[in-house]
Write a sequence for this structure.
């Protein structure tokens, strides 16, 4: 029972480089989310998806793109990384229904130098 | 625009004490209020949740108190233990199809032996 798996766990990028963060869930959840966590800022929603083939912007979408080609995967892309994108990124998923909480992955720590 | 205000930022108690973490919100469309617990290097995990038609919910040593008229809710940890040392986030969900959660900024709790 893997739940939500994020890869990679750590990454250092140079300014201007690109990368993709992968989130995979094995719970057949409809909803998936990407958050970033910064000290003193809590968790802020970047993008989310309500089903395969759908994506939508969250609170802080600038500089990021996402894709949900398969129901179990949600990809977060950084086209041209900036130091302001240094953060810990969390993916979460949840199923339909009224009493389900989010299941979070263990995070990706990204440093942009 | 911070939709869920959480206080305090940090809290230190002795073992056996009862730490209380408070959250306030403005949006009356919120219909689900979960609390998440996060240990260092891990993703947040659902701890306990409440709906606005209930004034209190207990699960083990954790209690949520909810005041709908004041638009406030709080987490109480009874007989706190050093193992409860973690960061706690309150959150709120809007009604509707996206099932998005808005998080408070978090409270770092330290329980001393």
């Amino acid at each position: 029972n893997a739940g939500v798996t994020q890869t990679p766990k750590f990454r250092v990028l140079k300014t201007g480089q690109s990368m993709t963060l992968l989130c995979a869930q094995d719970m057949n959840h409809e909803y998936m989310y990407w958050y970033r966590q910064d000290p003193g800022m809590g968790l802020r929603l970047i993008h989310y998806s309500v089903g395969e083939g759908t994506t939508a912007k969250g609170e802080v979408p600038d500089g990021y793109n996402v894709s949900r080609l398969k129901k179990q995967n949600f990809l977060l892309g950084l086209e041209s990384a900036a130091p302001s994108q240094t953060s810990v990124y969390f993916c979460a998923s949840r199923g339909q229904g009224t009493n389900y909480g989010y299941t979070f992955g263990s995070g990706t720590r990204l440093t942009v130098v | 625009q911070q939709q869920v205000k959480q206080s305090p930022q940090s809290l230190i108690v002795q073992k056996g004490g009862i730490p209380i973490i408070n959250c306030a919100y403005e949006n009356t469309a919120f219909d689900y209020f979960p609390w998440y617990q996060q240990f260092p290097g891990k993703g947040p995990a659902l701890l306990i949740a409440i709906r606005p038609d209930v004034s209190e919910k207990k699960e083990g040593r954790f209690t949520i108190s909810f005041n709908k008229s004041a638009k406030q809710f709080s987490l109480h940890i009874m007989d706190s233990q050093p193992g409860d040392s973690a960061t706690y986030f309150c959150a709120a969900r809007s009604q509707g199809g996206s099932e998005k959660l808005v998080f408070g900024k978090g409270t770092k709790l330290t329980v001393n032996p």
About this structure: The two ends of chain B are 38 Å apart (CA to CA). Chain B has a mean pLDDT of 93. Chain B touches chain A through 23 residues (CB under 8 Å).
